[in-house]
Design brief:
single chain; 306 residues; alpha/beta; Rossmann fold; 2 domains; 7-stranded parallel beta sheet; 3-stranded mixed beta sheet; 9 helices
Length: 306
């Protein structure tokens, strides 16, 4: 029998990539999001539904009589400057989903996409044993994500609800919206622009989209990941300056002006994970290296536009 999966945030970058993979496996895919799917991301064989997951009654109505084997929650308000919407979408929305599917008692796996920012001021490399207090977190986004994680862990402990949490670092790849570092840099380079950047001294972990999808699919099939948190990153931290210079090298265009943009006062210099747990659990030998991933990403934008 075909597996049935609900992808919350299925019209986004990661949701779109996950949807394509699930279709290729012959699964029945339902996408749930607040915004209509863009033309370049619309896929055949997907049932698109639209609802704000923070509104429980509407959510219950849409999910009434619907049964799923798997639920992957990639949803959440993108503009983190709007505190109330951020809180409702990332915490209340997650809570509503769990409440509904706990009652249905049919879901084999519920995956929550968390954030590296849940580690607060802990120094990198982050490991999954680090426990931060939500009230100490500065941003409403990180606080909402951590509240959701804590609620999910409690649901697993008290109800045996089959959750797995991934704390995601910086994902990139073909088709990402041009509101993130790598597509912004690629866009400027392909147009051979001069563009302002920070000094680029920040150390970050970048993981290619195919690796993210591979891990998510494996997790859906593995019961031994229930009730656990995993760092989802490449384990190869690098500087922002090195990433931008690599894009310049690969495109042979662009002129980044480093140091023109000041870092935020609260911006952390280093954010990267310890990935020993995820590599061992999912038998991962290696991830796509940054040069290979950038080549594939640049080629996509060259062929399809930004």
């Amino acid at each position: 029998m075909s597996k049935r999966i609900l992808i919350v945030g299925g019209t986004g970058f990661i949701g779109h990539a996950l949807s394509k993979k699930c279709i290729s496996l012959g699964w029945s895919v339902t996408s749930l999001s607040t915004k209509k799917v863009k033309k370049n991301r619309k896929l055949d064989k997907i049932l698109y539904k639209y609802c704000d997951i923070s509104k429980k009654r509407k959510l219950q109505k849409i999910l009434k009589n619907k049964k799923f084997d798997y639920v992957v929650n990639l949803g959440g308000y993108v503009d983190h400057s709007k505190n109330l919407k951020t809180y409702k979408s990332h915490y209340i929305g997650c809570k509503n989903l769990v409440d509904i599917f706990s009652d249905k008692n049919s879901v084999k796996k519920f995956i929550q996409m968390g954030s590296s920012l849940e580690y607060g001021s802990f120094k990198s490399p982050h490991n999954e044993m680090m426990k931060y207090q939500p009230e100490k977190l500065k941003s409403i986004y990180s606080k909402s994500k951590l509240l959701a994680s804590n609620f999910l862990l409690k649901s697993y402990k008290e109800k045996n609800f089959p959750i797995t949490i991934f704390r995601l670092y910086l994902t990139y790849g073909p088709g990402q919206d041009i509101n993130r570092l790598i597509p912004i840099a690629i866009n400027n380079c392909l147009k051979n622009h001069k563009f302002a950047t920070s000094k680029g001294s920040q150390i970050r972990d970048f993981i290619y989209i195919d690796d993210v999808i591979k891990i998510l699919i494996r997790s859906l099939r593995q019961k031994n990941t229930n009730g656990q948190i995993f760092n989802l990153g490449s384990g190869k931290p690098t500087s922002v300056k090195k990433i931008i210079n690599e894009i310049v090298k690969l495109t042979k265009m662009g002129n980044p002006i480093f140091g023109k943009i000041k870092l935020r006062l609260d911006e952390k210099k280093k954010i990267y994970p310890d990935i020993r747990k995820i590599k061992k659990t999912f038998s991962i030998k290696k991830f796509v290296d940054i040069s290979t991933g950038l080549k594939k990403t640049i080629k996509h934008y060259q062929n399809n536009g930004i």
